[in-house]
Request: fold
Amino acid sequence: MEEKQRLDFLLGALAPCGFAGYFDKMLGRRGGWRSLLIKAGPGCGKSTMMAKIADHLTAQGETVELIHCSSDPDSLDGVVCPARRFSIVDATAPHTLEPGCPGAVETVVSLYDCLDGTYLFGHQQKVADLFDRCGKLQARAARYITAAGSLLDDSLRISFACTDLDAARGFAKHLASKYLPASGEGAVEELRVLSANTLRGPLCYADTVTKVADTIILLEDDGGAASRAMMQLLHDEALSRGHRVITCYCSMAPYDKIDHLLLPDLSLAFVTSNRFHPLDFAGARRIHCTRFASTDALRAHRARLRFNRKAARDLFAQASNLQAEAKQYHDLLEGYYKSAANFEQIDAVTEQIIRSYC
Reply:
């Protein structure tokens, strides 16, 4: 049971525009939400602190969303507990956050006082060099992601030209009428990322889908145009009918292409499968989006589409290699901060958070 209480997500990833995320969107500034913003150096126990808080909440029967770090999916960037209207998030770069409503909504939890500044100052040059190396490697990785994005955008343009979008939207309306009844609860939208390219290559938290949904509608779409149009319509219909929607954007188009929609109140999910994150769920309803495309028109562009896919895959692999190299330097950086951190003091802060907020 406890495993179903843990939903895995990302809140951001490297995108063609650089790091893109929704960390500021997770800070609910209405309805009694409270958010803790952790400020600390690398290796100071932020992820461990959040894991302990998640364990405490699940032990009490709550469902939590575990927000993983795209640079290191083994680490946590945040924990969200919708039932408690509570969130805690790493508020340091590359997703720096500052309070918008200090005290009323957000509270800064600073662990800087738990660091031996004299020790860190004594290793200033090495620490600065490691930060610089990590930043440069992540910037290079972002450039490879940008290059891959341009190729995928070219393929998407072809897909749009070969797809009957009116037919795709018409079918999406049929799905909406069948699976999205009107609700009296009032619409709520949360932005998340379910699939992205990471230092381990393409990553998709498919288990989250099966934990949230008993009914899964799978749109198989290598082209991207049909599913893009259908997901947008389903998204709009779900909100207009008053549902809670977890909207998972594509990390390669993080502001305008929806990859997945999760509707916990209906135990329902609409998900997209393609060559970069192939998905398969037992009992899912599968919709082959080639039904909305002209196969003859696509065949005319077959060589170009194949080239774009292969080149993009190679670029993603290079980006992952660079992120993995950055992680090696980040681990060295963490070593300095671990040596400077007073973990007994940090544990005491963790226990105080649990007593006060959980």
User: Anything to note?
Assistant: The two ends are 20 Å apart (CA to CA). The mean pLDDT is 94. The chain has nine helices and 16 strands. Residues 28 and 157 are 36 Å apart (CA to CA).
